[in-house]
Write a structure and sequence with these properties.
The protein contains 16 helices and 13 strands. The chain has 426 residues and is of the alpha/beta class. The chain folds into 2 domains: 10-214 and 405-425, Glycogen Phosphorylase B (Rossmann fold), CATH 3.40.50.2000; 222-402, Glycogen Phosphorylase B (Rossmann fold, 3-Layer(aba) Sandwich). The strands form 2 sheets. Strands 3-2-1-4-5-6-7 form a 7-stranded parallel β-sheet, with helices on both faces. The chain has a 6-stranded parallel β-sheet with strand order 10-9-8-11-12-13, sandwiched between helices. β6, α8 (193-199) and β7 (208-211) form a beta-alpha-beta unit. α3 (85-113) packs across α4, α4 crosses α7 and α10 crosses α14 (370-383). It is globular and about 65 Å long. 44% of the residues are buried.
């Protein structure tokens, strides 16, 4: 992406979020957008190589035009081998704090040894923001502009539930959200990060941008996903249901398995295929559950899929389903809107601002009838062409009214960053 603004400024990113090929691309797109706008970009990142993290199935990526300085997140051996939940939590917390201090130390060492002068230091997510705050505490930042960036947060949920234990166990999140910044960007992913920052009286509220992520074009011509159609639905007789997520506890893929099982076993609908795209700690468990229940003809898991291939699965699918515990307004749901899919999801976070039940999709409260209600509505969708036509028309309208492209999203960010310097110069 090329920006209209060209300059020779420098930005230093600090993060424990490495670049991914099989998951959300905003982590990579952000420094790439700065590089495309003429910035000198350095990205210092702690990579979690443990099986408890999200990178053991990902290759290392070094984008062109970005100097990447990568080091391993500490205590990987303990996090891989300890099975007692309490100790897992303890070592995870300790690894997080060590990562914060090491990010700060690496940044300080780089700036000193390279005699580098940065215009902006960019804390990406909790570890990066805390590392920047630590440097600021010791007076290491001078006149460098500070940007904080969050992809969402659990903190709003903990605040609403008055869960003081969770707030204490995630004190690093609290520190990050409260920290001073010249510009703070909180992703509007349905987790109500703006609410959390206001409740915590963040020192970054004066210049808070609460933005959704951009979404690339998703629609493909039939020949581009013909290989998947031949593999999964060669005669076109099946309705294909898709989810895209890591196989983690809070993503609640188990709910989707239950919906498809109810649709097949209780409602007798056999022309259905659910494809679960994503890697994660629970993948093998889900695969075994499907085999044990005899649902392998109706449910398949692909494992990790390169991000560039995910839209092929979206184009193959008739229905997109997302049943996360926290919020469902992540990039997969936005991409499903862009692809004009019939969406089934849950009424949590701010998901209801995107999906209205029966108008442009289907959205449900989490209760004892959830599985049954979703399955029955899915049966109606599968059998009624008029319902499908209506929903598809309305979701197309939602796409045009509410989504940003990545070009629009990063143009807004780069403009906000440039204004920091315009204000300073004036």
């Amino acid at each position: 992406m090329k920006s209209a603004i060209q300059n020779n400024r420098s930005v230093l990113f600090l993060s424990a979020n490495d670049f991914k090929d099989k998951s959300i691309q905003v982590i990579r797109k952000t420094p790439e957008a700065f590089a495309a706008a003429g910035w000198n970009v350095v990205y210092i990142v702690a990579r979690d190589y443990s099986k408890a993290g999200n990178y053991y199935y990902e290759k290392e990526i070094n984008p062109e035009g970005i100097e990447v300085i990568r080091f391993p997140m500490p205590l990987s051996w303990f996090r891989n081998n300890i099975r007692w939940h309490f100790l897992q939590t303890l070592f995870s917390q300790l690894a997080g704090w060590l990562t914060i201090f090491r990010l700060a130390r690496r940044a300080r060492k780089y700036m000193k040894n390279a005699n580098a002068k940065f215009d902006v230091i960019y804390g990406y997510e909790v570890h990066g923001v805390c590392a920047v705050a630590w440097l600021g505490f010791w007076g290491r930042l001078g006149n460098i502009k500070v940007i904080s960036r969050f992809q969402g947060t659990w903190m709003a949920k903990y605040i609403r539930e008055k869960n003081w234990l969770k707030r204490l166990l995630n004190i690093d999140d609290v520190i990050a959200l409260k920290s001073r910044a010249d510009l703070c960007i909180m992703t509007n992913d349905g987790t109500e990060g703006d609410f959390a920052m206001k409740k915590l009286r963040s020192r970054a509220l004066h210049n808070l941008k609460f933005w959704i992520n951009g979404v690339d074009e998703q629609k493909l011509s039939a020949e581009h996903f013909a290989d998947l159609k031949n593999k999964y639905n060669p005669d076109g007789s099946k309705r294909v249901v898709l989810s895209v997520s890591r196989m983690e506890q809070w993503k609640r893929v188990d709910r989707i398995i239950d919906v498809i099982s109810y649709l097949v076993k209780e409602l007798g609908y056999m022309d259905i295929l659910y494809i679960g795209v994503g890697e994660g700690a629970l993948l093998k468990q889900y695969q075994q559950e499907v085999l044990t229940s005899g649902m392998e003809k109706f449910i398949v898991f692909t494992g990790g899929v390169p991000n560039s291939e995910v839209n092929k699965y979206l184009n193959l699918a008739d229905v997109f389903i997302s049943t996360y515990d926290l919020s469902n307004v992540g990039n997969p749901l936005l991409e499903a809107i862009r692809a004009n899919k019939i969406i089934f999801t849950l009424n949590n976070g701010t998901t209801k601002e995107w999906i209205e039940h029966g108008r442009n999709g289907f959205i449900y409260n989490v209760d004892n009838h959830l599985i049954e209600n979703m399955a029955k509505d899915m049966l109606r969708v599968c059998n009624d062409a008029d319902i499908r036509k209506h929903i598809l028309s309305e979701i197309a309208a939602t796409e045009h009214e509410k989504l940003w492209s990545w070009e629009q999203r990063f143009a807004a960010e780069l403009d906000a960053v440039e204004k920091l310097f315009v204000t300073n110069e004036q």
